[in-house]
Amino acid sequence: MQYDPIKRVLGEAFNKTPFLRKLFYNLLDLLLLRTWHIHKELRAWAKNKRQQPIQILDAGSGFGQYSYYLSGLSPNWRILAVDVKDEQIADCANFFQKIGRHNVMFRKEDLVTYREPQPTFDLVLSVDVMEHILEDVEVFKNFHASMRPGGMLLISTPSDQGGSDVHGDEESSFIEEHVRDGYNIQEIQQKLKSAGFSRTEAHYSYGSPGKISWRLSMKYPILMLGASKLFFLLLPFYYLLVYPFCLLLNWLDTNGKHPTGTGLIVKAWK
């Protein structure tokens, strides 16, 4: 199914006031397991850095929830959030201006061609972006060239172990906008090294607990919303029933080690 139209409807619904936008971000933080994993990695990275003048690239910023989270960790950090979609950039820029988060700037860029002329960033964040881009090695090279020595790249993306809800050659991605079903864990690390990164680490997310949580908290609601917008009225009641289970499952997935999983958390250093 196509995910972008549903995202557009959600954006329109929660973009009416700053309060609703913040509520939307809080709901995403609670419901999205990938956010649990990313926040854990960002907290570890940010230790002893909150007083430093850090430069961050949010590469494929989407709704802007990660830029919002990062900009709240330290006023000393400067964040450039880029996305290829005009409406996302406009909505986010308007919201951040209204709430006075002046340490974030939004700009339209294509990651396949965007590269800073000088090494600039101490952290590059790319959450659920690379599965949408065919020219992934070019993007990794651009990230590497735009980063300062010692900088870290943090990626969240589906794996080839059932990512995008694909479990065989005869199946296609649950999300039609994906150009690949998922990365092999060795493949993505090799591509990052070929792009110039000196060291990489990767581990699986969305293990056994996460797979169940994803179906309950994301897949089934998205399918319902894709069938009819009337399900917006039923979603609060649905989540009242399932979220206590998802909360436990998300905690187990974030704090456990998984021999396999449908997601990958990948880090690479320049």
From TrEMBL:
The chain crosses the membrane at residues 220-241. It holds the Pfam family Methyltransf_25. Residues 56-151 form the Methyltransferase domain. InterPro entries: Methyltransf_25, SAM-dependent_MTases_sf. CDD domains: AdoMet_MTases. The keyword Ubl conjugation does not apply. Keywords: Membrane, Methyltransferase, Transferase, Transmembrane, Transmembrane helix. GO terms for biological process: methylation. GO terms for molecular function: methyltransferase activity. PANTHER family: TRANS-ACONITATE 2-METHYLTRANSFERASE-RELATED. This is Class I SAM-dependent methyltransferase. It comes from Rufibacter sediminis. The lineage of its organism: Bacteria, Pseudomonadati, Bacteroidota, Cytophagia, Cytophagales.
